[in-house]
Structures are given as C-alpha cells and as structure tokens.
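Board notes (copied after class):
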Amino acid sequence: MKEQPSMQNTLTPESLLAGIRQTRLVAIVRGTQGQAAAKAALAAMEEGFRYVEIALTTPGAVQAIREVRAAAPAGCFVGAGTVLTVQDVDNVSAAGGQFMVTPSLAPSIEESARRGIPILAGALTPSEALEAMNRGATAVKLFPASIGGPGYLKALRDPFPDIPFVAVGGVGLEEAAGYWEVGAIAVGLGGPLFGDAGSGGELAPVRERARAFVALASDYDRRTTPKSLR
C-alpha cells in the first residue's frame, strides 16, 4: 500500500515567492467537477507546472485539493483560489492546501498571514495593492489584469517597485511575455491553459498547452538572463 505523504505544509511565503519568480507560472483550475479539476491539476503538474490552485467555486474543490496533495509529483504544490473567509482557510488547510489565493481584499489574507501560509492577494488599484501587502500578502495578484494590460502594470509598478505582482485574468500565450517584460514575477493561467478540463473536458489539450507555457517561460529566461548568471 502506498504510504500517504505528510500533510504538513512546508511551503513558506519566502519559498513560494522564490519558486514563482523562477517558474514565472501559476495554474488556476476552475470548473464544475471537483474530480475533473483534480485530474486537470495533476496533468499540468506532470507537464512542468509546480504551482496549481483549485478555485473553491468548483464543486468538490476541497476534496480535489486533498487528492492532488496526495498524488502531486515531488516539488509541486497545490493551493486554493477564491479563498475569502477564515473558514475557507481552515477547510483548505485541513485538506492539505499549501497556499491561498484571493480575488480581493478578503479576511483570508490576514488569517493566512497569521498562520504563516503563503497568500497571493487580489488587488487592482494602487490603494488595494498597498493594502494587500500591509495585510500580510506574499504577493499581489493583479486581477483582472486584462483591464489595463501590461501598460497598466508598468504604471502601477512605478510607485511600487518592491511589490511582487502576479498578473491574472485574460493572460494567454500571446500576452504572458508582455507582463514579464514590465516586471510581473509570474502570470496566472486559467482558461487559456485548462479550457473546459475542470468540467470534464479532454486532458490532452491541457498537456499540450502546459508544455507550450513552460517552454515559453524557459525561452524568455534564456533570452533575458545574462550568460554570466545562467
């Protein structure tokens, strides 16, 4: 019988931040079937994604997180999206979720920070971004990023060069590099990566798109990293 992995969360805010800076990618599964979401999350991990969140709006999301945590490849981490309340943090933690993500300035930010759980906090405006960090966010999830595109993120970073931003919402293969170029430490990929896989759709296209995103990030690093630092 396969030994069950420890449910202790070894992912710290510092290690999450370092990890997503390195990989430049966070995957976001949202759908209508928890079991399908779990399979989609594992497929993305098997193709090179290290950080995958399952949105709590997905029916059965907590059980899906539990299943992914038990089966995730070494070095891969599963978190929860749309984490809004203290109870959400409780539920996700009990299921083995290793990081939290919010769409807004929710009470879950302070609660996650209090427990030492990494959290990507949703914000759009300058005031919200600063407030998210003041509440203990590990990084700011710029959402929905498509409203202003890379130009907006560039303007936002001018007064806040030290805030780590993850661009989420309407980011696909054609848009990702534009956000990296203006300073996003990573991009969050939902529909452009998973399509309808979280609702029972085919996994083969997910795997193909996952490989394309991983290759895009790798190629971007090769083009932008000085040879002396490679």
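Comment from the instructor: The first strand starts at residue 25 and ends at 29. The beta strands are 25-29, 51-55, 77-81, 100-101, 119-123, 139-142, 165-168, 186-189.
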